[in-house]
Amino acid sequence: MSRIAVVVFPGTNCEHDTVSALRSLGAQAELVWHRQDRLDEFDAVVLPGGFAHGDYLRTGAIARLSPVMGPVARMARQGRPVLGICNGFQILCEAGILPGALIANSGLSFICRWVDVEVVSTDSILTSQLRPGQIIKIPLNSYEGNYVDPGFSGRVVLKYVDDPNGSQGQAAAVANLAGNVVGVMPHPERGSDELLGSSDGLGLLNGLLAAARVGAGV
Amino acid sequence: MAYWPPPGWGQVSEGTTVLDDEEPTEVEVLPHQLLGLTDEEYASIQKILGRDPSPAELAMYSVMWSEHCSYKSSRIHLRRFPTAAPWVVVGPGENAGVIDIGDGWYVALRIESHNHPSFVEPYQGAATGVGGIIRDVFTMGARPIALWDSIRFGPLGLPRNRYLLKGVVSGIAGYGNAVGVPTVGGEIGFAEHYTSNPLVNVMCLGLLRHDQLILARSGPPGTKAILLGAATGRDGIGGASVLASASFDANSGQKRHSVQVGDPFEEKKLIEACLELYERGLVVGVQDLGAAGLSCASAEPVAKSGMGIDLDLDKVHVREPEMTAVEMLMSESQERMMAFVTPNRVEEVLAVASKWEITAAVVGTVAAHGEVRVSQSGVEVARIPAASLVEDAPRYERPLGEPQWMEDLWSNTVKFVAQPAIATALVQMLDEPGLASKAWAYHQYDHMLFLNTVVGPGHDATLLRVQGTTKGLALSVDGDGRLCHLDPRRGGARLVYEGALQVALTGAKPMAVVDNLNLGNPEKSEVMWQLRETIEGIAEACEALGLPVIGGNVSLYNETDGIDILPTPVVGVLGLADPMPPMPPRLDRAESGMELWLFGAEWAINLAGSAFELVTFAHVGGRPSAPDPAAARVAVQAAQALAQEGLAPVLHDVSAGGLAMAVAEVAIVSGVGATIRYSDWRHLFSEDPHRFIAAIPDANSQRVRELTAAAGIPAAPIGEFGGTEIVFDRNGVRAAVDLEVARRTWDQALTRRLA
Fold it and tell me: pTM of the predicted model, to two decimals?
C-alpha cells in the first residue's frame, strides 16, 4: 500500500478531511507535523487546506519556511507526487515549487460553494484518471483563490466552467511541466461522498493514488 | 492607600481604556458607578469584606456582578425553564449544555450574544463573538464542529445598517473560516428597532467522547493554575460591565476600545493544544477567559470546588508593560484559557503548549483558604472570598407590568375589504431582505469543513452526520422580534414549536433547547414583563414537547437613547436522527409531476404579525394565534415519520410569508414551477404554527395517507409541481408569478441593496 503524507502546519484545518477521503480510497494516509524534515518513507505528499500560520503576512509566506518544505521541494524535483489543495496550492506557489501566485478573489469576498470544473489536461497526478473535457463538481472554499501567472509557465489542468474568482485562464488547478506537482484551488476531499453533494473529487484523488503506487513500485 | 484612581491608571496611553475618556462633569461620579455598580451593590461589597474594596477588588466585583455575568435581573425568572431529561448530562450554569446521544458520544451546545460589541465595531464584535462561543464549547472537552449565527439589523436603506451587516458577516467569516469551525446555518432579520442596536447571536456545537467531559473545577489545594494562549492586553477592559450591561447613547463610539480584538490563528492553536491536553488526561478542569477575563477564570472554578487561589499577576504574560492589576483582572483579551493541573503534570502541559506554539505560564496555586488572593510585585492587591464573587451576586426581583400599549396593539388589526393582488404580494415578499435568499452571506462562510454537512445553510434546519455512527444531528436557530412584540408568551412558545418542527422535518427527534433572550432595559417594568412572558412561553412549549433547556444567555440593556429593541428571543433546537434517513429531505428536490401536500390543521384565519401584513401594508398589529401543544406534538411526530420513511423528497415548514412563500421557496431552489389550489386567500399568507408542506411522488401518496391518518394529522394534496410559473388557483381563477422572475427577485433582494 502506498503511503501518503498529509502535512499539518499550525492553522491547517482540512487535514482530517483529506486523510479520511484518501483512506476511503484505500491509501495509507498519515498526518505529518510541519517541523518534520524527512519524508523519505512516503510515496506522495499533500499540503491540505486551511490557514497555515493564520495566513499572516501573506498566504503561505511563513509556511514556506517550515522544515517540512525542504523534503517537499526535493520530492517535487525528483518527480514524485506533490499535491497542494487550496492553502497548500498557495504554499507551493509561495515556495516557488509552482509558478504564479494566488491573490484575493476578484469579488473581494470569501467564496464557499460548489463549482463545476472542466478537465483541460489529463497529464498530471491529479487528472490522470479522468477524461479530457469531463466536467466535475467540487467545492471551492477560499478568499485568495484568484490565480495569476504573468510568465504563463503554469500548465492549467482544471478550469472553472464559470468564473468565480477572476483566475487567469479560469485556472482551477495548475501543474508543473512534468505533471508530478499540482496545485488545486477547489477541494477534492470535500467532493468525496454523494450524501454531501458529490463524489467527483474521488476521481481526482484516485490520480494521486495511482501516481503514489507507481512511486511505491506497486 | 489611595483607592482611586489606581496606580498607573492615569498613565494609560490615549485610546486604550474607556473609563478615563469621560471628562469630569458637574456631578461627582464615584469609582464604583463608573464601573457600573450601584450604591447598594457597593455597600454589599463593603459588608462582605468588612472594609472598603481596593481598586482591584472593586474591578473584580464590577465584572463578576455585572448583568452579563451574574444574570442578576433574569435569574429568578430563568428558574422557570424545565432543564431535566434522562439524556441531559450537563444543564444550564456550565460553559455549555451537554447531552448524551448514545454510542458513547456527547454533544455540547451553547448560544451567546455579542450585540453591543458588534454595534461599536461590527467586524471585531462578531469575530470575537464567534471566538468566545467556540471556547465555551471546547472548555467542556468537546471538539467544536459547527457554528450558527442569528443576526438582526435595521433596514438596508440606511448606509450605517449596510455597513453593520457587511462588517458582521465578514467578521463571522473571517474568524470562523480561519479558526476552522464551519458556519453551517443561521438567520438574518431586519426591523427598524435594530438600527441602533443590532443583534449578533452565535451558537456552537461540539462533539466529545463520554469520557472526555471536563468541567470548570479547580481540583484540591496545590493544583496549579496554568494560563494558556494569548498575552493579556488592554483590550476589552470592562466589556462585560461597561459594554454588555449598559444602554447606549450618542457617545457609544467612545466605547470602541472596550471591544476585544480577535486572532483566529491563536484560537486554532489553542483548540488543538487543549484537545491534546484532554486526550492525554493532563488537566483536572478548565475555564476559558471570556467575559470578566482573569477574574472569572480564577474565581469560578475554585468557588465551585470550595477552594481558593493564590494568583500572581507577575507571571501573567502581557502584551504591553506596566499594566495595572485592575487592567489585568478586567481585560477580556481573547484566546486565553485557564487549565488546572496537578503539579506532577505541569511539565507535560507546558510541552504540549510549546508544540502548538502557544504561551503557557503557571500563574496560580489552588489553596484551601477559600479566597481569591491576588498579588502583583510582591504586594497583595486583592483578597476576596471566592464564593462571594460567584454566589453573592445580587438577585433582583425587578418590578414588572404589562405594557399599556398591548391592548391598543391587539385591537389594531387590518380590515380587508377585498382580496389583494396575490402575485404582487408574493413578489414583494420575495424582495424583502428578511425573507429572501441569504446565499450572499453563507457563501462567505466555510460551511462544509469536516465533511459532516448533509443539509446545509438555506434550509429550515441543518443536518450534520456523526461520522462512525448511523446518527445525524439536526439544528435550527430562529428568532422573532415582531411576533414577540405582539405577544411575547405566544411568540416565545411558537419559536420552540417551529424549531422542533424544523428538526423533525429532517427525520430527527427534538432533544434539547438553548435560548438567547435579547431584550431592552430591565429597569423598565414593561421590559421585565416581556422577559417574564417570553420565558413563560418558551418554558410552556418545552414542557409540552418534553424538551429540556440545557443552556442559554440573556442579553439585556439592548436600548439606545431610551428606545428598547423588540423583545427578541432566539431559540436553538437540537434534534437527533437515529438512524439518519438515507435520503434526508431537502428544499431542492421537487420535480415536475410531484404532488404538493399541506399538513397540519386549518386555522382560524389570523394574519397578525405576518410578513404579508408587514410587506404589503407596513402594518404590525393584532394578536397572533396561540400555539396548540397537541397539534405541535402531532406535527413533530408526523414530520419525523415522513422523513424517516423517505416518503417526501421535500419537506418544508410554513413560517414567515406563509404557505405562498413556503411553496415559492421550494419552487425556486428546485427550479420547477408549482400550482397551489386554495379557497380563501388568507390561507396563503397566514403564519399560524404547526403546518408544513411536502413534495411527494405519486407512488408514495397512498402510504402518506395511511401514515398521516394514523398520526392524526390533517393532510391533503393542494396542488402539484411542474411548469414555469408559481400559480395560485381559486376555482379556475389564476394568479401567476413567472418562476424566473421569482428566482431573480429572491436571489438578488439582498445583493442589490448591498451593491
Answer: 0.94
